[in-house]
Write the structure tokens for this entry.
Amino acid sequence: MAEGRFTLSQTRALDFFPSFDEAWTAAQTVIAGLRERNFSGTRPLATDVADEYGLRFRGAGWYLKLTIVTDSVAVISLHPLERPIRTNGGVVKP
Amino acid sequence: MIDKCPLCGGRVRPTAKRGRVGRHRNVRDLPIPADLEIPTCAKCGEAYVDLATGRALDAALKAAYDERLRAAARTAIASIIASVTQKDLERRLGLAHGYVSKLLAGKKTPSYDLAAHLVLLARSPKRRLEEEAEAMGGVGLSLKAPAGHAEADKLRRKRRGATAAA
């Protein structure tokens, strides 16, 4: 993923990590490892749609929501799951 | 940089303002420099951080975090040394000789654990050091140096005296 085409939302992604560096690394790792079985669904946003994923990361269930804005990927949410999520690969638990 | 907020559709622009706070490690309310521009939605206020902004943000928050630890340690030590000597404090906490002076002068940055330890000690230094020594089997609170140390001090003084006389 090109470095300049990637942003993290502060309140729903960045704030769950001890530093930006760790959040950035985690987001890169999670996104690079995404498979079809992680996909949960598409949700409407104010002017667009976002894809939701549920996956196992660092021994726990994580939630990822991202969308494409202009030419960059916006990570809207990246945090541990608050509740189970249904994905193509089955239910991912917190 | 994105220019439109995916959440509300508002305009996202590099924004610098006072009063923002951020997190570094386990401290959440660290001040973000007023002049640091962070792409922010003008409508909902959500910030979108890219790599360049994130690195600048990390550096600023780390500096604020370190300063917070140094200030906490300085304040705590100033209070503790009213009832326990610096040397004694170093011995009891297992710190290197002179380290407390460096903390007081702001020349060293303590770990979060040490700063927190000092802050708690400052609430009641003698009592807490006694409790710690009892619970952890550490050095007791008696201000009298242990026998081995007294012997060594005596020898050192004698040598110093001999050197001065020569």
